[in-house]
Write a structure and sequence with these properties.
alpha+beta; 36% strand; 5 helices
């Protein structure tokens, strides 16, 4: 297969049938020696992390599909930690849905909000642009720059909230609290839908006051 690109946590290949194969790697991102899935720099590897990301994405995609929320997922791939998905045109956005104030939200708005303060499934858009620190972008700017239409924006906001309510409830039933979650959307055959992954790399989950790492979330949900 032709490798399309090598990302921070996944390698992407073009399959013979025109679809795409995702390979989930053990690499982790962070700042210094602290693992942070929201960071833009790879700081090392954690054994089994790729399997955790793959398995959780498989589980959450299945949850979304059963609820009628489409994704680009087709099937499990031929090798370990691989997934076959439909090829999409990425909008190069992160769509973040926040249940509580945390992280960058508090750093931006600390004069008005405290860490852990409930938020009404607040949706924000950021550009996927490592060089500029994934800057926040307004809905009007998305339209003005022809990144997304008003219709696409409304769909992404509604879908992010639906998916977040579903995932939040699923986690709550297992004693876990979803703080925030980010989605990537792409266009396939003219339809906008969730793509990439939905795993511990894309959400902040708390148990007993502690934010769980990817492998810890896997153990809490799928550990045998």
């Amino acid at each position: 297969m032709q490798k399309l690109y090598s990302g921070k946590t996944k390698d992407v290949y073009l399959a013979d049938d025109g679809n795409v194969l995702l390979y989930f790697k053990d690499s982790v991102t962070g700042v210094g020696d602290k693992i942070d899935s929201g960071a833009n720099e790879v700081i090392g590897e954690v054994a089994g992390k790729g399997h955790s990301s793959f398995s959780l994405t498989l589980m959450f995609f299945d949850l979304l599909h059963k609820a009628g929320i489409p994704t680009h997922f087709i099937s499990v791939g031929p090798e370990d930690n691989t997934m076959l998905v439909k090829r999409a045109r990425s909008l190069n956005l992160e769509v973040i849905c926040r249940k509580k104030a945390w992280g960058s939200f508090v750093r931006r708005y600390g004069a008005y909000v405290c860490e852990g303060q409930p938020l009404p499934s607040l949706v924000e858009f950021t550009l996927k642009d490592d060089d500029r620190g994934d800057p926040l972008i307004t809905e009007d700017a998305l339209v003005a720059l022809n990144i997304a239409s008003r219709q696409d924006i409304d769909y992404m906001k509604e879908t992010a909230r639906r998916a977040t309510d579903l995932i939040s409830g699923y986690l709550a039933d297992r004693g876990l609290e979803l703080i925030d979650i980010k989605y990537e959307f792409g266009v396939i055959d003219g339809k906008t839908m969730i793509i990439d992954e939905v795993s511990g790399d894309s959400m902040r989950v708390v148990k007993d006051g502690k934010v769980l790492l990817q492998n810890e979330l896997y153990e809490a949900l799928l550990g045998r």
